[in-house]
């Protein structure tokens, strides 16, 4: 086991929620003797260690205490109980460009910002060219930053922060800065960091980056550590709890939504054959039948059928609202047919999901994940790779 | 603790002070001229009132023999303005630094130090203009400048203490800011700026405050050196050091106890 670089021990942080904020002496004196605030427990008894070279994720809902934890780790907030020990040079990226002064030039701000982040003069001077080069703002570095676009501003700030050369980097949702090229460079920088054996703590909503980048993670729930360990398992548990979904059967089907209107199942028919199938060919005319039932009258529901390729990417997702098919109300049982003539799917396995929303898509009545599965076998046309065919027409020409 | 932090982060202090100086007069035509115009206007107003409305004799410098109210006035006004402006701007700077305080861990006291340093530089520029004026007026002040610098440096320590205490308190009660506006006006008249501390016509209480209070002691010491061309007594100088030490220790104590709670309070 590698050395511990960040220790969080029984960390508890409470805030006072003032019922009437006393910001003047008069108010404070007038309120004296009466406790005009409530205690709000943002973090309670949070304990975890981060080891050298780890990429450590912290996930949680809004209001779960992530930001408070981050600020305690960064030394901005003082814990009420417990302690945070940082054993390496740390840099916390909470907000990029905090402390930039709009009237000063990019150059002056780089020096000032780096000093605020704790660099000394010689280090900044040595790193200056690297910082500017990384930001890609060589041409604008002597302009006041108030003339920068927000993207340029963030790029410069990020370049400073990343070049402070920390052994422990704490990041808050700042991965998505700048344009695609710059994002790619940031990602490369993180990978470089990680390969150098540096430690990264990532506090984020972005579950994909936790799953892909982190070695270990914790899940914060209402100020407590709700789980710790393998990011993949944790992200799954987190997603499940967030969607409130329950397993349907062993095929991996799940269902969520409020349930006033649910899709019972999806049947697939080919041509005029009255028997449902789970297998057809490219080029067949295929009919998807969604059977639904309601608990009560549901006004203006919209239905969607989602077809995913095996990798999880959605191939097509027709929605009844897109074609203007919106009944005033739906009550009782019924079915909807969606016919796809001369289907363009290429051979492979596909998942079918269904979704029912209200007209504004604000409310989800039902989401049936993996309502059914089907296979496509070789038909016409045929292509050896890809998911769909565009029915290409080929022409060759030769130099005679 | 604050001193050690100031040394450890001297680069930050240098850059923050530079920022204060650079941004103060950006986008203004007169630029630094403004910093001179303000005391000059005050000088003009008080000179007219003093010499033409109340028809007073200007105090005589001893042993210099100088008899010039505008110069007498400026010798007191410049150090006082440094005090009152530094404290006021410090409070604003700490409050205005909330974006930084809430997002980055850094020594908060530098928000105050940098203001004092920047104002100190401004004051030195003002004093160099005053020096020229005094030379033209016949006071050979040049040999006294090292003593002046020492007194002003001690004065800056005193000012820093007050600025630390009030800026920290202002985070919790914004009244402090307004209170300072009134208090500094009162102090202006309780400090021997438009009058001499030894003026026998002063009421007893005002005489004690203006002669022995911290602002009065410092202003009088500066005036001794620049207007009278006389070394302040060792006892007077010792008092200045005591005032500066006390102010700084108390201010530093208050600030370092309150500053960990800034991020929460802002």
What would your notes on this structure say?
The complex is a heterodimer of chains A (400) and B (266). In chain A, β6, α6 (180-195) and β7 (199-203) form a beta-alpha-beta unit. Chain A is 22% helix and 36% strand. Chain A has eight helices and 21 strands. Chain A starts with a strand and ends in a 23-residue tail after the last strand. In chain A, strands 10, 11, 13, 16, 17, 20 and 21 form a seven-stranded mixed sheet that branches. In chain A, strands 5-6-7-3-8-9 form a six-stranded mixed sheet, with helices on both faces. Residues 245-250 of chain A have low confidence and may be disordered. Chain B is 75% helix and 0% strand. Chain B contains twelve helices and no strands. Chain B has helices spanning 2-8, 10-24, 33-53, 69-96, 98-101, 109-136, 145-172, 175-190, 204-212, 214-228, 234-258, 262-265. In chain B, α3 (33-53) crosses α4, α6 (109-136) packs antiparallel against α7 (145-172) and α7 (145-172) packs antiparallel against α10 (214-228).
> Biggest sheet of chain A: strands, sense, closure?
7 strands, mixed
Average pLDDT value of chain A? 84
State the end-to-end CA separation of chain A. 71 Å
Topology of chain B as a string of helices (H) and strands (E): HHHHHHHHHHHH
Uncertain parts of chain B: none
Number of E-state strands of chain B: 0
Overall strand count of chain A: 21
**Helix content, binned percent of chain B:** over 70%
Using the alpha-carbon principal axes, give the shape of chain B: globular
Q: Return the structural class of chain B.
A: mainly alpha
Please state the average pLDDT score of chain B: 91
Structural class of chain A: alpha+beta
> Cα-atom Rg of chain A, whole angstroms?
28 Å
Query: Termini separation of chain B (Å)?
Result: 24 Å
Number of contiguous helices of chain B: 12
Poorly predicted sequence stretches spanning 5 or more consecutive residues of chain A: 245-250
| Multimeric organization | heterodimer
What proportion strand of chain B?
A: under 5%
Helix and strand sequence of chain A = EHEEHEEHHHEHEHEEHEEEEEEEEEEEE
């Amino acid at each position: 086991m590698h050395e511990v670089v960040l220790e969080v021990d029984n960390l508890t942080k409470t805030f006072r929620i003032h019922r009437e904020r006393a910001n003047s002496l008069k108010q404070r004196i007038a309120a004296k003797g009466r406790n005009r605030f409530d205690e709000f427990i943002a973090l309670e008894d949070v304990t975890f260690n981060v080891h050298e070279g780890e990429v450590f994720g912290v996930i949680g809902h809004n209001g779960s205490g992530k930001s408070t934890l981050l600020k305690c780790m960064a030394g901005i907030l003082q814990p009420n109980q417990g302690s945070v020990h940082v054993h390496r040079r740390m840099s916390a990226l909470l907000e990029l460009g905090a402390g930039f002064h709009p009237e000063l030039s990019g150059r002056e701000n780089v020096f000032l910002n780096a000093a605020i982040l704790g660099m000394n003069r010689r280090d900044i001077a040595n790193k200056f060219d690297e910082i500017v080069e990384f930001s890609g703002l060589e041409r604008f570095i002597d302009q006041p930053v108030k003339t920068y676009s927000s993207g340029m501003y963030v790029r410069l700030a990020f370049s400073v922060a990343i070049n402070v050369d920390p052994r422990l980097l704490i990041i808050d949702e700042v991965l998505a800065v700048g344009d695609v090229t710059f994002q790619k460079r940031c990602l490369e920088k993180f990978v470089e960091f990680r390969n150098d054996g540096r430690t990264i703590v990532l506090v984020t909503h972005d579950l994909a980056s936790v799953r892909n980048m982190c070695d270990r993670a914790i899940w914060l729930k209402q100020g407590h550590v709700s789980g710790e360990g393998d990011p993949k398992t944790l992200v799954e548990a987190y997603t499940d709890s967030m969607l409130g979904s329950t397993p349907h059967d062993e095929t991996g089907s799940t269902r969520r939504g409020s349930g006033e209107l649910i899709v019972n199942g999806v049947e697939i028919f080919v041509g005029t054959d009255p028997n449902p199938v789970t297998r057809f060919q490219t080029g067949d005319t295929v009919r998807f039948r969604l059977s639904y039932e309601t608990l009560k009258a549901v006004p203006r529901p919209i239905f969607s059928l989602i077809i995913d390729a095996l990798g999880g990417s959605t191939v097509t997702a027709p929605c009844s609202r897109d074609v203007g098919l919106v009944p005033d109300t739906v009550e009782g049982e019924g079915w909807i047919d969606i016919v796809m003539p001369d289907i363009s799917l290429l051979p492979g396995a596909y998942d079918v999901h269904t979704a029912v929303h209200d007209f504004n898509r604000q409310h989800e009545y039902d989401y049936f994940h993996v309502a059914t599965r089907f296979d496509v076998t070789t038909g016409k046309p045929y292509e050896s790779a890809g998911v769909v065919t565009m029915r290409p027409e080929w022409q060759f020409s030769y130099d005679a | 603790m604050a001193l050690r932090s100031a040394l450890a982060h001297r680069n930050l202090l240098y850059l923050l002070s530079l920022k204060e100086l650079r941004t103060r007069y950006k986008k203004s035509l007169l630029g630094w001229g403004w910093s001179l115009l303000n005391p000059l206007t005050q000088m003009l107003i008080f000179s007219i009132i003093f010499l033409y409305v109340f028809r007073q004799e200007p105090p005589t410098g001893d042993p210099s023999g100088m008899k010039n109210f505008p110069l007498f006035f400026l010798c007191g006004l410049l150090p006082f303005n440094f005090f009152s402006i530094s404290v006021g701007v410090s409070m604003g700077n700490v409050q205005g630094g909330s974006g930084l305080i809430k997002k980055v861990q850094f020594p908060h006291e530098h928000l105050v130090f940098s203001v004092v340093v920047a104002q100190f530089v401004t004051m030195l520029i003002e004093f160099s203009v005053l020096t020229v004026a005094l030379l033209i007026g016949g006071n050979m002040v040049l040999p006294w400048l090292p003593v002046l610098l020492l007194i002003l440096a001690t004065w800056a320590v005193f000012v820093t203490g007050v600025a630390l205490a009030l800026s920290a308190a202002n985070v919790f009660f914004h009244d402090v800011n307004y209170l300072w506006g009134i208090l500094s006006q009162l102090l202006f008249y309780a400090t021997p700026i438009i009058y001499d501390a030894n003026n026998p016509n002063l009421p007893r209480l005002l005489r004690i405050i203006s002669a022995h209070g911290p602002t009065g002691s410092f202003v009088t010491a500066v005036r001794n050196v620049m207007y009278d061309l006389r070394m302040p007594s060792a006892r007077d100088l010792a008092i200045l050091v005591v005032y500066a030490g006390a102010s700084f220790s108390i201010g530093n104590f208050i600030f370092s106890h309150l500053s960990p709670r800034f991020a929460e309070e802002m």
